[in-house]
Amino acid sequence: MDMQVGPPQTENTNSAESTTDRPSTRMTKTQILTLISMASVNFSSMICYSILGPFFPNEAVKKGASQTVVGLIFGCYAVCNLIGALVLGKYIVQIGAKFMLIAGLFVSSGCTIMFGLLDRAPAGATFITLCFIVRSIDALGFAAAMTSSFAMTAKIFPNNVATVLGSLEIFTGLGLILGPPVGGWFYHSFGYEVPFMLLGCLLLIMVPFNIYILPSIEADPSKDSFFRLLTHVRVVLICFVIFTLSSGLGFIDATLSLFAMKTFHLSSGYVGLIMLGLSLPYCLASPLIGFITDKYPVSRNRFTVAGGIITAAGFFLLGPAPFLHVSSQLWLLVVTLALIGFSLGMTAIPTFPEIITCAHEKGFEEGLSTLGMVSGLFEAFWSMGMFCGPVVGGVITQNLSFEWAATVQGGMTLLAAFLLAVHSVSRRRPRSVQEHSQQSDENTPLLND
Predict the structure, then answer these.
(1) Contact 37, 214 (CB under 8 A)
(2) φ and ψ at residue 170, rounded to 5 degrees
(3) Which residues are paired to 218 by β-bridges?
(4) How far is CA 429 from the centre of its chain?
(5) N or C: which terminal CB in the chain sees fewer CB atoms within 10 Å?
(6) What is the residue range of 372's domain?
(7) 28 Ramachandran zone, left/alpha/beta (phi>0; psi -120 to 50)
(8) Is 401 contained in some domain?
(9) Distance between CA 58 and CA 43 in Å, rounded?
């Protein structure tokens, strides 16, 4: 690729030439192709991921799986995603960002098709074991694609990370929006296999498409590690926020469909439509939040804290919480999902560029290797939450109720927002004291009369 007007594609490129000129507002060919590629990856990956929600828990129960086992099937995906994200994020330069993304898409497409054949497996231990195996391999492919996608996006759009990620979340949201109703409708009309076959083939088509349009990026490996990045207190608190958000989403994926079917006597198709209430507001909020936080970086923390508080309130109303003494209503469920979806955009979008800023404050070099580690760390904590949410939520739902499980999720989200707010206030005070002392020193006369 000869066009180097925008961000450089090699880390050895001399950046002195760009310091005298103002950055162009027009996107280069490399940036346009990357945007198209990442949009296709986000959409196809998320639509394949989200089709399980409306009908798989009910199908798994018919095959002899308990609510806890269903949660573990959802959760094992997250565990393998966590491991894959950490390893692949560390070695993204050695493996190659483009190869990692394409290989991840290929593996995920094959596993999606194979998952559609599991209804032919005998009920009981055989079905459950095959679900764990296929789902785990699929998670490694997803980890490769998403880790590479985040890192390449941050590398090619260094000055507009939140804006671009927020815009790409439109396609993530579209995948989440279309996945449940499309999956539920195909399942209701044609049976278990058809949704997985169609969407697996869609993901497979993305492989040659991205081979052709995705630019290659050369970089030098870094000697930094995840452990050094986690010595930054703010990074740890942001990762806890990420964990609580994904935990809540995983809990909703694994338990909401059964709760809605049992409480409101809905079919799988209508459950898929209800999940639009979560995905659509997130899809609309993400690019707006990304644009604002890129233009005003100081607002990242405020959006993250405010979004966390609103998300917590949403989970308290999702059941609703037993201590509220409010009966469950279908309209309240839809409104609450919309509230959670919008607040997720407020909270999640600023976290990735904020971790990048913290990494640079810690002395990490600017380059694909650092971005790969940040991307891997983000995916790892997101996956950790996606494991704990379904598992813990499934156990609490089975032994207590859905209402109490949602309350626990809201409490964790509120705690994460509170800790981040306290840390931000404690950081601001020493800075203001230091600035006041410096101003006092400047006003002190050099010679006393």
Answers:
(1) yes
(2) -60, -45
(3) 10
(4) 32
(5) C
(6) 28-431
(7) beta
(8) yes
(9) 25
